[in-house]
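To close the section, here is one more complete example, presented without commentary so you can practise reading it yourself. The ligand is 4AD.
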Amino acid sequence: MTRSNVAELLNSTNFSQEVSLKGWVRTFRANRFIALNDGSTINTIQCIVDFENTDERILKRITTGAAVSIKGILAESLGKGQNVEIQISEIEILGDSNPEEYPIQPKKHSFEFLRENAHLRIRTNTFSAVMRVRSALSFAVHKYFIKNGFYNFHAPIITGSDAEGAGEMFNITTLDANNPPRDEAGKIDYSKDFFGKLTNLTVSGQLEAETYAMALGKVYTFGPTFRAENSNTTRHLAEFWMIEPEVAFNNLDDNMDLAEDFIKSVISYVLKNCKDDLAFLNDRLAEEDKSKPASDRNEMSLIEKLKFIVENNFIRVSYTEAIDILKNSTPNKKKKFQYLIEEWGTDLQSEHERFLVEKHFKCPVILYDYPAKIKAFYMRLNNDGKTVRAMDVLFPGIGEIVGGSQREERLEVLQQKMKDLGVDEKELWWYLDTRKFGTAVHSGFGLGFERLVQFTTGMGNIRDVIPYPRTPQNAEF
Ligand code: 4AD
Ligand code: MG
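Output:
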């Protein structure tokens, strides 16, 4: 007999057939009713033990968390809230789970407690729903790009460059930290290191992706990226996954169109293919909202919010217009912002981004044409000489979800900008080659995958949408 899974049995009407399945006990009631889950769906299937003919020693071992193998008959269920059940003819305990010691009991656990038990939290409804949605989103990302003629590009994880120029890198070295080789000036001599120079974990695959876009036309990366920024927020990780498309001949408008279409497409995929998990997460968020003050509650339910994103156009606003709006906003005038907006040129903080999205426009916003001074060296300088063709997509509850730009394709302008921002030309000789040989307008962006998962699942903390979060002072598991 082939083994079935819970998802297919719950949808089956093939009653009286004999079935076999394996899974974990979620609850066991009245020495009779097992709620069994095997990960194939958020739902459990009710399995009924023939307790008169089952050894008492076996009954004792049917505990929350135990792994079991079951054979039985699929039957129509008369119970409320379920259509099918399994009348067990044979049960085998595959792996016991001592109820005195098992941390995941069938009750509400705090997210803090579950983070400390990240290896077991996946056994709860919330985390299994989040991680199934995460997996579906990942598939939808690849599907979108491949369907639209992109090639998947695997960017190197170890690099010698700092794409964002922010200096937030994790160094990689095999030198003995206690006794490193030193040069004549007494500095650590990285020419003796594994790669013959100092290297780091990548902060972005963009620069390498650009070189591939200049031959393959349309490429995208989807891989881990690393940032040693000491930000203990609900939206920052030290290790996160980024999706970075890069397209030859696209200008900034094309880039914005791509970002919007892409995000809508992957969210639609989840709305269509993760109905049970989304329904659960929707109710979870509604329940969580009840314990918040009225002013902090979500105006829309999770599913309404996702549909809203798919059905409405993102609003496109220049940085200069945004600064005007923010300068004249009530929280700025009443000094409610922690960082007051006084003049053109200041960087926007997440409080400003969220004001624009959540209070002013009440819609996803794409901000573009930022001051050159606050953005990376590779962005294309506008004719005004002071702004660059940058774009950030801002989302409700999240703030920045995408950062991208049209790239500076003119060699001399790029070299001048590198000089101004202190980026070493010698390190990036290969990058500059793309501007020497067949240079062309091109654009791309990076989307933080965990921020997308956070938005799609309605989870408040980014640490709860990646299996094993890496944050300052925390790399357990
Ligand atoms: O805006 P960022 O820094 O852009 C880049 O890295 C460009 N090279 C992308 C490109 O044009 N190809 O990062 C892109 C996105 C952000 O919008 C955010 O969603 C996410 O990556 N991100 C983080 N997510 C989680 N934790 C962090 N520490 C993040 N830093 C950035
Ligand atoms: Mg950014």
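Once you have examined the tokens, check your reading against these statements. The CA atoms of residues 227 and 238 lie 5 Å apart. The radius of gyration is 27 Å.
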